[in-house]
Amino acid sequence: MLKLTGLGIAAMTGAMTTGSAFAQRQESLGDKWDKTFPKSSRVNHTKVVFKNRYGITLAADLYQPKGTRGKLAALAVSGPFGAVKEQSSGLYAQTMAERGFITLAFDPSYTGESGGEPRNVASADINTEDFSAAVDFLGLHPNVDRNRIGVIGICGLSGMALTAASSDSRIKAVATASMYDMSRSISRGYKDGYTLEQRHKIIDYLSQQRWVDAENGRYGLGYHEVPFDANGNIVKGQRVLPETLPSNADPVLAAFFDYYRTPRGFHPRSINSTTAWTATTPVSFFGFPMYANVGMISPRPILLIAGENAHSRYYSEDVYKGASDPKELLIVPGADHVDLYDQADKIPFDRLTAYFNRHLV
């Protein structure tokens, strides 16, 4: 499945490019339903491909509400970090399409059905560009009002959504759910818990891993958030999540496991469900902090949604403190981080709908 990406799919389906600069395409890649959520009868679904500014072919699911006329507002959606469009982002996109928006849930570069080699790489820069490339695609769609485009970032793609909005004024409104700042998390640890010594150890580990990869001619796998054992040594691994959940598992690990490793949210193309990132993935996030210019989003609005009991809540709260008006912070009572991936009774879709209807005018 990982090999069946981007241009390979296009070649198999005979998809044709247009004359536009970024070779946007709206050819179907097949409409087989392979999502972790039920298909809605109220929207039309099509698989599409398009290219980002770096020439990487992205794969996406386009959702359009049935029975509408004229040009509509549109939303580009992606996340969580290590997930695919068949999981949480697709659920958000389909639900918002039911509410009158044209939506696009996409796989970031190097993951899922999108192109890019090697596989399973994340980049603070390129994955930010992916959001703007999705805006390119939506803005060329005949049913989209290109002056009414917003983005939704979920979990670890939230930082990329905010970063894209800070440098792309075509994004008229941005919302995040269960935000994770991957640059901060990877380079400083949970709640900035890494010591300076630990940060140097991680940099040294990543630097030495580059020698290993260069000598082997392939990229090893590893944790994107590097843990330490009780003796202060780096812990290495080949899987984001274990095959089985330990009996004494941390509640946060248990919550992620319950989504990615069970029928609730498992998908074979999801890094979090089946494998791990390349071991050197953290390099980008040490070097490039996300949303450093978040103040540039203003006067366009930001909506930050977090669960009351989410271990990641502080990321949304800190962005709220640092962002300029207009901004909103919505804390969902009783919800944890993973609840906002797929629990429809806790995801505030009514608030999201009202927010984008108000600001995408």
Blueprint (SSEs and pairs):
Layout lengths: L6 H7 L29 E9 L5 E9 L6 E7 L9 H11 L3 E5 L17 H17 L3 E11 L3 H10 L3 E7 L4 H7 L7 H21 L4 E2 L28 H10 L10 H4 L2 E2 L3 H6 L14 E6 L5 H10 L4 E6 L6 H4 L6 H11 L2
Parallel strand pairs: 3-4, 3-5, 5-6, 6-9, 9-10
Antiparallel strand pairs: 1-2, 2-4, 7-8
Helix pairs in contact: 3-4
Structural class, judged by helices and strands? alpha/beta
Shape: globular
* Fraction of helical residues: 25-40%
State mean pLDDT (0 to 100 scale): 92
Parts with pLDDT < 50 across at least 5 consecutive residues: 1-28
Number of helices: 12
Strand content: 15-25%
Number of β-strand runs: 10
Ends apart, CA distance between termini? 40 Å
Rg value: 19 Å
Oligomer: single chain
Largest sheet: 8 strands, mixed
